[in-house]
Structures are given as C-alpha cells and as structure tokens.
Amino acid sequence: MKIKWALNELKKLNGDPLPLSGQVDLTKSLKDRNTSIIDAEPLLMDGILVVENTDEFLVDLNLSISLTLPSARSLEPVKVDLRIPFSETYLAAGTVVDAEKYGNDEIVVELESDTLDLQKPLEDVVLAAIPTQVFTNEELENGDMPRGSDWKVVSEDAYGTGVRERLSEEEDPRFAALKGFFSEENE
C-alpha cells in the first residue's frame, strides 16, 4: 500500500477523500528502532486522506498491528495486539497557520518538502503505543515470580506493602543518632 505522495498528486484530488485501506510492512524499521520487538505483523490501516485546502492535508486512520514482545518476567515471546487511532494534519512548507483553527488536541505538522510521507509518523505512533510491560497468560494467571537460591522477585504492590509495614514497626537504627537533633531543647 502506498504511504508516500507528492503534494501535487494530492492536490489533484480536488477535495475528494482518498481511501487508505490496506496493509504496510513496517517490521524491519520497527525492529531497527526498538530492539525489544521480536517480530511485527504488517500494519493494517483503514481511513482516509483529505485535502482540505490546497496546502492542508488531513490523515485520519484506524491502525491495528500485532507485535511479538518479550515478557517482562521470563523474556518468553508474547503476542500483543494494538489498536491505535491516528489523526494528523499536515501543512505544506511555508503555510501560514491560524492557531485558532486547530484545537489543543490536534496534531499539526509542517512538511519540510513537497512530499507527504507517512512512514515515520506511523512508526512513531506504533512505538509510542507499546506497553511498558507484557506478560504471558500463564504469568498473569498464577502470579508466580522468578526466584533463585538467594533471591526472588516481588511485585511492586508486595514490595511497597512490606516496606511500609517494616518501617512502621521499627525505626531504622541508622537514624537513631538524629532522633533528638531537631528537638526544641537544642535551640
């Protein structure tokens, strides 16, 4: 599927929307930009590209992609399905921007050349949507954490609860000498 156009080519649409439905293989570029990605299926796109003015190009897409990422606990491969909305407005170089026309949530990008290339913006939105932690179904179901002979991994909740309980039950001996440091008697 085509994701790069000359602006002159798009201006010939005369306001008619250009349907963008199909798939694009971004596997190599995604893996190059994020080495934790084990594999990626082709990106599925469904949406439109509209030339609103002769210098204004609106791209509105629904994206879906399946990535294979390592589990945060075991490094086992985990398939993650992502559904990502994508809506950006592109302006031809030198276009005067009316700030009131666009809302605070709208992404407006000024093009540096006479070409609209969606490769990098599509990669950026996919990379930004990758979750920080993924787990296999088994890891989610049983909650077992990795352990060794002298160590074990604990969840953030268990760690936080254990630390709070320990600190409330006993004072840290390293701070015992400072206990009376700020008392009113020393003033």
Describe this structure in words.
- This protein has helices at 7-11, 27-33, 119-129, 137-142, 156-169, and strands spanning 4-6, 18-24, 39-40, 43-53, 56-70, 77-91, 107-110, 115-117.
- It has 187 residues and is of the alpha+beta class.
- It folds into 2 domains: 4-139, no CATH class; 143-178, no CATH class.
- Strands 2, 3, 4, 5, 6 and 7 form a 6-stranded mixed beta sheet that branches. Strands 1-8 form a two-stranded antiparallel ribbon.
- It starts with a strand and ends in an 18-residue tail after the last helix.
- It comes from Marinilactibacillus piezotolerans.
Binned, the helix content reads 10-25%
Beta-strand percent range: 25-35%
Radius of gyration, in angstroms, nearest whole number: 26 Å
User: Poorly predicted ranges (pLDDT <50, ≥5 residues)?
Assistant: none
Order of helices and strands: EHEHEEEEEEHHH
- For the record, the count of structural domains works out to 2
Please state the oligomeric state of the protein chains shown.
single chain
Q: Shape, please? A: elongated
> How many β-strand stretches?
8
Major β-sheet, in short? 6 strands, mixed
Number of helices: 5
Gap between N and C termini: 77 Å
Q: Give the overall average pLDDT.
A: 85
What is the SS-derived class? Answer: alpha+beta
